[in-house]
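User: Hi! I'm a student and our assignment asks us to look at how structure tokens line up with a sequence. Could you show me two examples?

Assistant: Happy to help. In each example below, the sequence comes first and the structure tokens follow. Example one:
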Amino acid sequence: MDSASFFRDKSLGADSPISGLIALLAAVDALSHLEAIDGFNKQLVFLVFTGEAWGYLGSRRFLHELDLQSDAVKGLNTSLFEMIIEVGSVGKGFNEGVTSFHVHTTGVSSATNKTLDALNHAQDSLKSRNISISSAAASNPGIPPSSLMSFLNKNPITSGVVLEDFDTIFSNKFYHSHLDDSSNLNSSSIVAAASLLARTLYVLTSDTKDDSKSALASVNVNVSLVEQLMGCLLECEPGLSCELVKNFIAPSSTCPSHYVGVISDEPSSTPSPEYIGDVSRFVWNFLADKTSPPKGKTPVCSEDCSKKGGVCTRAEVDGKGICVFSTTRYVPAYSTRLSFESGTWNVLPPNSSDPMGMHDPVWTESNWNAIGLRVYTVQSAAYDRLVLLGGIAITGGAYLAIILTRAFVAKILKQD
């Protein structure tokens, strides 16, 4: 959910990767309104990573925490992951009335085949919207740059697919550039990707007898929500001051920035405003709200909320918050070669068993609170000439005053 560019405050990453993030959030929202969600026979885990533009920090840290079995990932295990579906760049799939997507796969497996069948089933239910999906070319050297690479590095036989708006060549010519802004997107393409994802997940998690076209027709993406998210996450107006964001958090700024940010203190699994950026806190609150049952929400958060398996959302808005029963977690993204002990960061030696860890970058930057710039204006030529003439006049006047003063003093001394 973050991007990189020459100017860190201009890292919008509209198509790569925010279009995929918006599609995911819209799909989660669509599934949250289904009455049949309690009858799903498989568990869905939604992951949103930060730091992927910097050596896949988020996904690699997540997998590292799974190995450590830390509290932040309690209840999850990589051996339970049957299939990974990643939503990549999906904002430029619309062309001449047809929205086209390409599915990049890790190989052939029963889980992959089931997912491809589910995607085709979802596509059939969306034929009236002119949505087309196709498998990526076999000539591709592998999957495109994605978080799925971290999972494959951990377990090469992991089944996974990446949904993209391109096949062999990036369609986003502004990839990791400050020019990758909202004008580089098509909202219809994001809506189509969200619809395809939501219905595919419905097919994969529900009973086969309940994945008919009539059942899939009940899975609908809120187009207004997609447009709201685009305005909130990619524009300065309304930006993070939009009602959707302000319903969940109290943003510290208006213009969104998808720069990964820095960790200066002890990493915390609590997304507090002091340490976590606005966008990350909003996404965390949004997912916690959408993945919780509506009947389990308590108007005011209390100390018993976490003890009962709940999390406190919207606490920044009114200071009270809402206790929802959700397993939404927050895992700080930083290098697996870093550890924080006794108030100090330590750099660990490379892990020889981890090919990516052998060259794992440890990114650092200054701790400036604000970057300042002092600008000196260039005066006009006429002003420079005026200053020069003024200087000459003052110099001449001073010289004349000295001569007259000396003559006057000499005359007074002679009279004495």
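Example two works the same way, sequence first and then tokens:
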Amino acid sequence: MTAKWDFWIDRGGTFTDVIGRDPEGGLHPRKLLSENPEAYNDAAIQGIRDLLGLSSGDTIPSGLIGDIKMGTTVATNALLERKGDRVLLLITKGFRDALKIAYQARPDIFAKEIILPEQLYERVVEINERVRADGRVEQLLDIAACRPAIEQARADGIDAVAIVFMHAWKYPDHEKAVAKVCRKLGFSQVSVSHEVSPLIKLVGRGDTAVVDAYLSPILSRYVQRVGQELGVLSPLEGGEERWAEGREKANDLAFSATNARSHSEGQSTKRPEGVLSEGTATTSSPVDPTPPGGFAATLPSRGRESPRLMFMMSSGGLTAADMFQGKDALLSGPAGGVVGMVETARLAGFDKVIGFDMGGTSTDVAHYDGEYERAFDTEVAGVRIRAPMMRIHTVAAGGGSILHYEAGRFRAGPDSAGANPGPAAYRRGGPLAVTDANVMLGKLQPDFFPAIFGPGQDEPLDVETVRAKFAALAAEIGDGRSPETVAEGFVTIAVENMANAIKKISVQRGYDVTEYLLNCFG
């Protein structure tokens, strides 16, 4: 046991849960609204302050903290709400619409009007280059010709770029050269397909590079803010630029070594101005230098003055803060729940588990039968991505799902009240939500729910407001049903949506649910 505090944090769309372990080994839970701008800037940091006995705004003594391990929905929410960064796509000439056309899949084969999914990139620049599948260069890369268009995009305020060239997964020299130019032009986020997803197939590799460019800047800003508050060991600010500089130096050293070797063999490898050398593209790449803080971030917390900050990836593994990328963050929060589901079930003696993770915005369900189920090619929020992820099925039915009465029918969700304003019971003027229906029916008791609401964050759920709103809704419906009956109707709909999600990952896949433990959390 270290003489420092350790923290485990789950930052969801509605609530942020923090568990702190003090130097004596005692566990201390803390729950906060994920968004409460009047009280604090970041719920995770505020939770740490609360458990350390610090006031809002106080500097956190980094020497008191050992490890912080966090799962977050920052990237997920940015993708769902389409609030990522503006992205420039650089792609081989002739393939500007390749990612838009994709695989020509038609989810609804009988639809007369085909609605293509929204693209995350804002602008496309075709790069005059082409490397064949066998590595022969068919079209030399002319950097001078493409530079003005890239400079114009940067001048127009686009700060993230995704670079996707044909066959670059195996022959990446052209991508490396253009990436170097983009970094020198000042793009803060450069996602290169052979680094992000070094696998065959242009569309999958390209989609993943675009998602990474779209989400990584937002994720980087959040990680940097958290890191600065905590005083983490690896300085996050400017980290990507230093990593890029290190990569460029490594590439230059590799080219120099190749040049020297060629001279000794009587050959010349002088690199033409503005183009890469003609001939067969090399399959070997210099080893990337360790990202800033990469080795330091893996050191044990004992004996270190600064905390070690790690984030949960969609695959269920942890990574150092400065290596946390957008493509790995989409299921950061739910993936941690799956790992916890399996471990707690194992402690209780069960090896077949169905996980039921009900949150404020959505409900996630997962299946486990002796090994974790993972998917590689997945679609999240209408966006294709190729990265290892836990196989999790999500439905838009959670505690914050807004209740609607329209055209004589009840509907729960898919829109959510989130944390701000949240359900009506949260004392922030929010609409009726599934949480309120459970409060109305007495299934959710204010005495057993954290009193974290109101201006002072010390008031319980507002039962009176919930009753008044359901009474008004019952009067609007006007068919004689009581407010309690109306609330029960909405709960029935939400429960049915969640039950269908469980059926989809179990019964519909041929599993006998009578052999499984239903492990509920959220």
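Here is something you could point out in your write-up. Residues 39 and 456 are 8 Å apart (CA to CA).
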